Amino acid sequence: MKFWVILAFVAIIGSLGSALFFMMKSSSQTTRSKKMALALGLRVGLSILLFASILLAWKLGYIHPSGIPVQG
Hints:
The chain contains two helices and no strands. The chain has helices at residues 2-24, 29-60. Helix 1 packs antiparallel against helix 2 (29-60).
């Protein structure tokens, strides 16, 4: 499970990086905005997928909340 979460975070960061690349690249304005919007849309989609996957894994019992240990 940890592997999938790490992979999802890397994909989200990669999508954000590609959006930055397309934003900074000097090309026509419409092509640049379309590619940047696509990359940012992909990032949002991956973020929602990661959240839903974590919620589903918790509901199915694959992961358990451990909380912060109380010291006292």
